[in-house]
Amino acid sequence: MPQADAAATSEPANASASSTTPKKAASAPEKKYKCQYCNRAFSRSEHRSRHERSHTKERPFKCQKCRSTFVRRDLLLRHDRTVHAKDGGVPLQSEGRKKSGTSAATKATPSTAAPSKPSISIDPGTLEQIEASSDGMLDLETAAMLMTDFQHKAAAAAAVNGHLHNGDGSIPDYSPDRSSLLESSDYLTGPNVLPHMPWDSFMPQGPSEPKAHSMSSISSQDNLSQPPFVHMGSIQPHQSQLPPIMERQNSLGSSLPPTFPSLADNFPVSGTPTPNALSPFPSMTGPVSPVNYRKSPGPAQPLSLPKAPQLNNDDERAIIANQLGGDIALPSLPSINLYLTTYFNLFHHHLPFLHPVTFHPESCQPALLLAIFSIGALYNFEQEQAYMLHHGSKKLVNQFLQNKDNFDSRKCPLWTMQSTLLNMVFESWSGGSQGLEWACSIKSLLANMVAGNKYELKLRIDARAGAPPTHEQWVTEEGCRRTYYAVYIFFGMLTLTYNHTPAISFNEFDSLPLPSSESLWIIEPTDEDSWQDIFAASPTITVREAYDSLFQGDAARYSAFATRVMINALFLEVWNLRRSFESLQDVVLEWKIRIALETWERSLDLCEPEIIVVPLSTPHKSHPLIFNSMAVYRNTRAFLEVDLKNVQEALRYHNSYEIAAAMTLARDNVKRTKEMIKVIEQGYECMEIVAMQGINWVTKTSSTNWSIEHPLCGLDLITILSLWLYRIEHDDQEATDEELAMYMKVRGLFDDDAVDANGSRLSSTVARVWGTMLDGVVVWGISKTMGESFKLHSQALIGYVDELSLDPVTGMQVSDHALMGMETAY
Description:
Blueprint: H1 2-10, H2 16-20, E1 33-34, E2 41-42, H3 45-56, E3 61-62, E4 69-70, H4 73-82, H5 97-107, H6 124-134, H7 139-161, H8 215-221, H9 245-250, H10 314-324, H11 333-347, H12 366-379, H13 383-402, H14 414-428, H15 433-441, H16 443-463, H17 471-498, H18 518-521, H19 528-537, H20 543-551, H21 560-579, H22 581-584, H23 587-603, H24 624-639, H25 645-651, H26 656-665, H27 674-693, H28 695-705, H29 709-730, H30 737-747, H31 752-756, H32 762-774, H33 781-804, H34 816-820
Antiparallel strand pairs: 1-2, 3-4
Helix pairs in contact: 3-6, 7-28, 11-12, 12-13, 12-14, 13-14, 14-15, 14-16, 14-17, 16-17, 17-21, 20-23, 21-23, 21-24, 24-27, 24-29, 25-26, 26-33, 27-29, 27-30, 28-32, 29-32, 29-33, 32-33
């Protein structure tokens, strides 16, 4: 024992494992294999080899299904289980899984149902092997992260395949006070429904709380004397209320406070894939309103969960097949119902122009039905089937238009407009330049359809001579208006993303009422009298009235869909301001637009509350349309200061190298001014949203739960953020206190290992993390193109710095400290 104690004190750097089990220090094996880079000692050569890969960056384990490489085999196995789970084929297995599985099965007994936890003794050699194989990440943390991912996948599956219903199949009524909602054990039906993780309880409740430390963050505190890669004076570190983003990516369990109860203790009896204020479960407390984070009052009505339309039997499928003929293959009945479910549960809420209550697939026009199926197949990751259905829909629409000898937009049915819109959405975001060019070629056709149909709608409304509409009439008229606004929003996103000239003017809709709330849209009144009472009590505001209110600084009350329409109008005002030479000289107009944007944000406090449960998981406790609107709002604020026209035009042709080059060359457009700090704050909010959710979870679920607006709006914001960080790191001009504070806020989202992997450049780290998130799990191909572009942009930032760091006379590498000229700490 004295000899063992002496040996333990002679190597304090390597005593971390043995210190945790001091009683077994005598049995510690001899550590004769030393790392040639840091002199760390190991008892076995393979442990040393694993450790040395952290220095050499060697990645010997290659995925046979893609081009990814990994440092350890367990990371390869995790990659195969998560990324390639839907690809089919035999999954990889660890070497000892079969043996351990067999031995575990033989030891299992009925008496092990609820035993007390036995104490586990691990010898120092085993601890050392775990530490060497995981580079400081304990398997317990990995298991916690995997369990969390599994919970979210199960919740997403419940959103697609399961519906809340009573025993008779109807939707249960939810009381706003949420009392006694989970007393029934069969409240959620389905064989594989798991409870949802109460995410909000994982996060600190305010900035005053200390940051929950993980293993990486604890170790980073010992290195606070290391200077950051930025021109700055002495500065205290920013006290972020969030653990670093890369720590949350790799370790959920370690980021929990010490007093946090076990994960199993926090699972509710049942769960829902909607962790927001609409979740009618005891674990999700707070007001019922979907915008309760904006102080909106909750509704008094019971909550409801609309059910996606379905085909009931093969006879209804046969009706559709007969309409299609033999040219287009119709999917099987289960596939059709799956596509309908994914469309109405995952896509419809972001662009709700269809009426789910009266939508009957068997009587729907085949062109519109195939367009819906195609997007549903995309969200189910069936790309080949999605493209086949999409081309079938385009073919049917073309046949209808070509067979009309004298095309008249006033007589064009609504379904042609809706089918064309969905087909254009499919092509524009699918990730191919040819599809985008096709969509642009028919923009004028769709705009003409909107104008003609809107005129016919006006004639029908005028014919009523002021009489209120029946419910059937209102549904038809509201469906037309919602389709117009959906086209308007889509054209606005084409302008935001590709710098395309808007095809529809704001004046086209100025006299129309804004879209109603989603609750009123899907309501089913018992009789006509009750509908008239409901309609009379519903607020009505036209587009022009809301527009004038915003520019006058008066907050307006309208629905979530109307919120999305109005921020689209404000973005197009900014676009016109930046693209018109006369507007560039109009300081008063720019000031008015800034007032309107501030008023729009204040109007969120007055947004009409909803009573429907949306089966989507979004970070904000709001309807997804509010969440999407905030993404466009951040992009609009940034557009007032920075114009990335060249990046947007490069994106039209979907060449990642050209897009990345345009990003890097845009660094001169990003100025270091006080106004730019506000823009950087918007980019920081984008990264913070990802940080609060965890990058692993966002990578796997955002493509299906979040709208395409978020990656598209993030293109400008994260490009600006990375270029601003680059200038802070490398400009000769010293950073101001405001700039340093903002830099440290962004730096607080990442641990040291994440930044060190990018040459200690925070600018490169931000671009790489964002790119990795975008091209992880892909629904819309444009997000993969942008992800690859950001990763190339990240490499370009480092490459450009490497060129600058060469001495122009000797050609030798200049040290980082000499290049920065600073000796300061965080």
